[in-house]
Structures are given as structure tokens and as C-alpha cells.
């Protein structure tokens, strides 16, 4: 079993600029050191891609460290994509919204409505900020279905602004804007993104694949996946000649063990704090010829 404490250094400054501005349940930034080891060990890797980016915690830290020169972030949900796009391409306007929007239930209700309506033809800045506002103000960062910290009545020790660290958020967003030339975005289905990835760059790119989990997907993710989609993803990754450098993380369930029976599967102990603190066993999957532990 992989012990995540062996790979837990992360950024030297947890509140520094080169970290994701998002809060994400199940985020994999704690694997940054381990991913960095795999990238360094691979020959000729200069780029890093996440087909199910979410908060992209590991991606941002790897770019900030200089482990890779470029990152490619894909998320199929257009609301999450809009947030990343606006941070990168309307940075100053996004920061203005972070600083000027009152962190209260009126703002929360307006943002909630925008995210629920999910108007794909509308303003990316408005939709992206609304998505990000909910991420910073909802329980555990769950964008839909969790509700605001402190509840709708705003009672208790922790209220809606408990995780809205404006100065830190602005610092991280500004850093993203400064590095936008090194960050590519796309808004496709994860498997379609992998299949369309330019062949000329596949061998020089490390793919970290953290799809919606099988058992908790509908609760935590805006776009859960069917069993068939999980199996299709596994079939593509384990087929000879598709991708050279990849790693997948998943919940520990029989569907995944069966789907990746020809790959190397190691258990991974992960500490979560979604509502209550607990340790879950997940799995880390790599091509069978890769040495996962050294």
C-alpha cells in the first residue's frame, strides 16, 4: 500500500501563489511529490495533462515547481471550465469580483441560480465566478448539493465566509493569469480528450487521470460516469500503443480491479475531511511495466 505521508510535502507555502485557488473534495495535490518522481523518472517528459482536472491541485504545483513547462487542463463540466477560463483570460475582472462581491446569502443565492441554470451561451466570467464562489462557500467545496457553510440560516461557529480567504485567493488567481501562456484549457469528455491529444506530444506528456469515482461520483462531481464509461476509459489506457506515461486514481472497488486487471494496481490510503474526518482506501493504477515503489 502506498503511504501518502511519504509524498506529502506539497508546496512549502500552503497559502502561496503557486497552488490551486479551488477547494476540492478528493483533490490529489497530496500526490504532487509522487507524481513529480514519476515525471522525473520518465524520459523526455516536459508537459502534464489532467483530463478530469477539477481543482487541478497537483498540476498547478508541478508547474510552479518547474517540474514541467506546460500543463493541459480539461474538464467536461462547462461551469468548472468557465471558472478556469475566466481566471486565466479575464484575470483582473475575476479578481475584482472576488474582492467586491459580498460574502453573504444574497450573493450565494444569485451564484447558486447561475450555476443551476448553467447557461452555456452566457457570460463565462459570470458563470465561472459563480461556480468559484460556491466552491469557496459551500461545505467541503462541493459546488452543487452541499449547501453553504453555516447553513441557510447562517448559525453556528463557522459561517459562509469561513473559507473565503480573499487575499490568498487573489494571489493564486493573479499567479494563474501571469502563467496563462503555460496553461492550456479544454472542455471535452475526458476520454475524448485523451483520444484527441496530439500524437506528436503524447510521449512527452505525463497524464494524471483522476475521474469521477464509481461509488461516490454522483455525490461529489458535477459529471458522474457510468460503469461503461469507466470500463471504456480503462480499455483505452491499458491498450498497447495509446499512452506511455499515465497514472490513474480511483475508489477501491471491484469494477476498477476488473477493468484494470492487466495494469499495476496499488492501494492508497487517503485522509478525507468531507463532513467527518476519515481514512478511505483508494487505488493507484499505472501501466504494468512501471515500478510503482522504489
From TrEMBL:
**InterPro entries given for it?**
M_m6A_EcoRV, MeTrfase_D12, SAM-dependent_MTases_sf
Alphabetically ordered keywords of this record: Methyltransferase, S-adenosyl-L-methionine, Transferase
Q: Name one GO molecular function term.
A: sequence-specific DNA binding
Question: Key word Transcription regulation present in the record?
Answer: no
Q: Name one GO biological process term.
A: mismatch repair
What's the short name of a Pfam family annotated to this entry? MethyltransfD12
User: Where on the tree of life does the source sit, at the highest rank?
Assistant: Bacteria
What Gene3D superfamilies does this protein's entry cite? Answer: Vaccinia Virus protein VP39
Matches recorded under SUPFAM superfamilies: S-adenosyl-L-methionine-dependent methyltransferases
Tell me the protein's name.
DNA methyltransferase
Organism classification: Bacteria, Pseudomonadati, Pseudomonadota, Alphaproteobacteria, Sphingomonadales
Amino acid at each position: 500500500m502506498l503511504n501518502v505521508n511519504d509524498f506529502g510535502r506539497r508546496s512549502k507555502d500552503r497559502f502561496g501563489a503557486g497552488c490551486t485557488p479551488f477547494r476540492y473534495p478528493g483533490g490529489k495535490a497530496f500526490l504532487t511529490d509522487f507524481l513529480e518522481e514519476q515525471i522525473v523518472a520518465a524520459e523526455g517528459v516536459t508537459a502534464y495533462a489532467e483530463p478530469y482536472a477539477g481543482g487541478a491541485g497537483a498540476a498547478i504545483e508541478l508547474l510552479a515547481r518547474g517540474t514541467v513547462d506546460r500543463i493541459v487542463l480539461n474538464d467536461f463540466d462547462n461551469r468548472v471550465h468557465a471558472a478556469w477560463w475566466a481566471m486565466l483570460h479575464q484575470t483582473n475582472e475575476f479578481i475584482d469580483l472576488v474582492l467586491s462581491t459580498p460574502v453573504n446569502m444574497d450573493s450565494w443565492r444569485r451564484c447558486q441560480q447561475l450555476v443551476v441554470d448553467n447557461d452555456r451561451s452566457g457570460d463565462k466570467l459570470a458563470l465561472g465566478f459563480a461556480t468559484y464562489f460556491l466552491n469557496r462557500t459551500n461545505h467541503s467545496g462541493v459546488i452543487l448539493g452541499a449547501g453553504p457553510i453555516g447553513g441557510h440560516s447562517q448559525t453556528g461557529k463557522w459561517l459562509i465566509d469561513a473559507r473565503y480567504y480573499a487575499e490568498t485567493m487573489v494571489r493564486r488567481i493573479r499567479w494563474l493569469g501571469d502563467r496563462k501562456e503555460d496553461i492550456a484549457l479544454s472542455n471535452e469528455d475526458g476520454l475524448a480528450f485523451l483520444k484527441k491529444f496530439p500524437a506528436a506530444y503524447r510521449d512527452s506528456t505525463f497524464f494524471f487521470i483522476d475521474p469521477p469515482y464509481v461509488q461516490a461520483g454522483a455525490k461529489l462531481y458535477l459529471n458522474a460516469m457510468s460503469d461503461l464509461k469507466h470500463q471504456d476509459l480503462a480499455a483505452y489506457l491499458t491498450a498497447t500503443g495509446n499512452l506511455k506515461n499515465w497514472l490513474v486514481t480511483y475508489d477501491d472497488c471491484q469494477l476498477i480491479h476488473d477493468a484494470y486487471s492487466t495494469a499495476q494496481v496499488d492501494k492508497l490510503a487517503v485522509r478525507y475531511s468531507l463532513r467527518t474526518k476519515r481514512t478511505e482506501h483508494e487505488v493507484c493504477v499505472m501501466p504494468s511495466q512501471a515500478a510503482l515503489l522504489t
